[in-house]
Each structure stands twice: as C-alpha cells, then as structure tokens.
Amino acid sequence: FQTCLPPPVDMMLAKVNISASEWIHETGGDRISQNDISLFHVHHHHVPIPSHYEGPTGWWPDALPPLKAFSAEAGRTTPGWVTVYARPGAAPGIYRGSITVSAANGGPWELGLELTIYDFELPTIPTLKTDFGFSMESVSQYASSINASPDRIARGFLENALMHRVTLHELSQMPGISSNYAADLARYEQRLDFLLKSGLSTIHVPANLLDAPEQLRAANAFVKRKSLSNRAFTQLAIEPEEPAWNRILESMEIWEENAPDIPITVSTQGLRPFIPPFLDIWSLHAQVFDTTHNAAILKRASENGEVWWYVNHTPPRPYGNFFLDFAGIEHRILFWQTWALGLRGMQYWNVNYWLDNQNPYDSVLDITPVNGDGILLYPGADGPVNSIRWEIIRDGIEDFDYFTLFMERVRALKGIPGHDTLLKEAADAYNLHDIVPSLVSFTRDPEVLLKKREDIAHMILKMDQVLKRSY
C-alpha cells in the first residue's frame, strides 16, 4: 500500500524518514516482525508520449527503490510504498501496527494501521502457471557497469520473482544441449528442490534438445521420474508465420517421439493462429480471443485443455496490459480475465529488457510507442528494484489462488447434501459479470475489485466452517 505525505504549501520537509513498528496480533501474542515490513520510495518516470498515443503524458509512478531519507517538497504530495509480508503459518486475525514519519523540521507523525490475516493459506506453488522472460544480457551489461557478478545479481532476480509468485523462464529452465548432459541434469536436480519449495510453477525444457535426441530422451526420463509433466513444457516456436508451420509440425512429431512426457507449446497471434488440436498447450495473444477462434478456444479450455495467453507491446486500450502509463486496475484485471476464461497460464516476454545503455529510470519508451513493455523490474545496487506493476502482478496471481481455493470448497460442498442455501450464497459472491464482462469492458474502479476479493475470502472462510463440521 502507499503512504502519502502532503506538506503545507509554505513548508518543505527535510531529511524525512519513514519507519514501521512491528504489527501485533489482537490477542497480544503473535507478531509480524519489522524484518517482514519493507519500505520504498516511489520513483516517477517521465512519459512524453503515451502508450499507443492514448492517454495523458507527464510523470508516472513505477520503480520502488529502497527508502532513504528524502525531502518532501512544499505543497506537493510525496508517496512512499509499504509491503507487509505474512509468513506461512502466521496466526489468523487482526494485526495492528503503525507507520511513523519524522523530519528534521517537523513531526513525528504516527499513522495507526491494521490488517487481517485470513484463516487459510495460499498454495506454495501458485495455481496460475507463469512463464516470464529474463534478459541475462541486460544483467551482464549492468553488472559490468558496477563491477558486480552477473550470476549473483541474476540469483537476486530469481529469488525476487519467486517471492512475487512469478517463474522466470531462463533462470529456472532445465539444461539445454551440452557436451555432458548427465552432469548438467545432476546439477539442475540439486537446484530443483529449492525452486519448487520457493514456488516454481513452470519448467521450460530448451527446444535445442531436438538436435540431440539422446539428451532429449534423458530430459524426458528426468521429467517423468520427478513427476514434473504438469509443470514442464517446451516452446518450439514464437509467433511463427504460416510458411513455417509444416516445419514446426515435423519438429512436434520428433519431440513427441522422444519426449512424450514434456508438453509442447507454440505462442501465436493474428487472425490465423497456429492452434492445431494436437498441440499440448495453446498460448495465445490476448487479441486472438476476439477473433472467430473464440468459441474453439473457450471450448478447449472448458474441456480441460490447457490454454495460456500473453500480452506484449499490444494490445492497446481498451484491453488490459502491463504498460507503465496504464492504471493499476488495467494490469490486475488480466488475472481476473485469465480465471474467467478458464486459462491456466500466462506468458510475458521479458521483465528486465534494459539494453543498449538504456537507463530505465529516465526512459521506458520504445518505438511502438509503448512505455514499460518488457521492463517490470529495474536495476539496483544489489539486485532488482521492484515496480508498482510488479507488486500488482503478484496481487493478481494471488487473486487467482483465491478463486482456486474458493472453487475447491464449492466442489467439496456439492458432494455433501443439505447445503443448497450456502451454495447459492457462494454463487452470488462468485458472480464476476460486473468485474469482467469482456476483455475490453471491465471495471475501472479498484474498490469494486477489492470488495469482490474480500467477498471471495469471506466465503472461503464460511465454507470452511461448514466443511470442518461435515468431516
């Protein structure tokens, strides 16, 4: 959440500090430690040209560098950002704490706050599969400029992404073709337990293994032995043009002969997308859903077929996207649409594409023009710097988990006679029509979305009470 400091018009506040107390459970026992409360600046980025030439120009908030003492200009609101992390196993209930603001020439001012931890836990591995790209080249260029280890910085990005419930494609994939594949697999196996315990939702298997069938068969045996078929996949092509389709079909046949336990996906876009019925995972650009293929896509999703989707430098408004100069609701709504469509995964092409000496704090504009495409994390002195969009993405993934937990309870209740009234109440709470009637028509009011999330949480708790009495 944000904190906002508005000094009077005739007074600048100097050497401002913000601190957080520990948060104490209403019973006086359990606590949320100060170590689990993170404080950040809010950096504003200049947007001289709006994404797709639509929307206001000016200064937009996004990057969240660590908080240091700062000056708050007279008559202007200075925001900060606070993230509170509730560890697994934290006692449910209300916690109270405070944020204190002090300055060399004013304060201190104390803001009392409270939060509620619900009596259910999100799954360690998110139920929404994510496959977000990562640029090692960007990190290497940046590491060289600050005389740091690229591998150390990359590890920081991986850990940060997993904390945000996002899987980074390049930093978690299985080894590709090599001179000693058995040794590479053994090293990967040593990492795998940490990755899964940290929330890894997908495992990419490099397509270059097609050139080494014996290594591909070894990868398949590894996936089968570790029961990873529900997470592993290979991407054989990205948005192929129609002349390449026959070659891709041939590659699919070879892959399936050697690695039948590793599903195949091909991302696709346009009016004629590459979606043969025997392709294991359909990965579709968002606008494909508004073509004549919509019925076939929804039919596949409803029949337990695996469908993913993605956005990139398109679509523009009125669709949602991750552009920096879109409102937060236009980022978060993508995850509600993912659930409403029956999709299981989301891809995104890159989280840190700051190449060619680009300083993403100064400019996030590309030639499309869009702002912030491929830049969800920023370079920091010791690793990644979060963004407001990155925080919203984590919240959206957790929204998806809420829906999953909700539907698990509904299915359990349907198996127990005598709960029709509660099931009707659950159905009313679950009605998302006012939130996401379509991909281009959705609520722009974050309070409506947050209220619906709260309703879903309360219904989970209510159904849990009944289910506990029934077993």
Explain what the structure shows.
With 471 residues, the chain is an alpha/beta fold. The chain has three domains: 2-117, Sandwich (Immunoglobulin-like), CATH 2.60.40; 129-391, TIM Barrel; 408-470. It has eleven helices and 21 strands. The chain has a seven-stranded parallel β-sheet. Helix 1 (136-145) crosses helix 2 (150-163), helix 8 packs parallel to helix 9 (388-414) and helix 10 packs antiparallel against helix 11.
The CATH class assignment of the largest domain is Alpha Beta
Question: Would you tell me the overall average pLDDT?
Answer: 97
- Main sheet strand line-up: 13-19-18-17-16-15-14
How many domain regions? 3
Tell me the structural class.
alpha/beta
Strand content: 15-25%
Note poorly predicted spans.
Answer: none
Helical amount among residues, as a percent range? 25-40%
Q: What's the alpha carbon Rg, rounded to whole Å?
A: 24 Å
The tally of strands reads 21
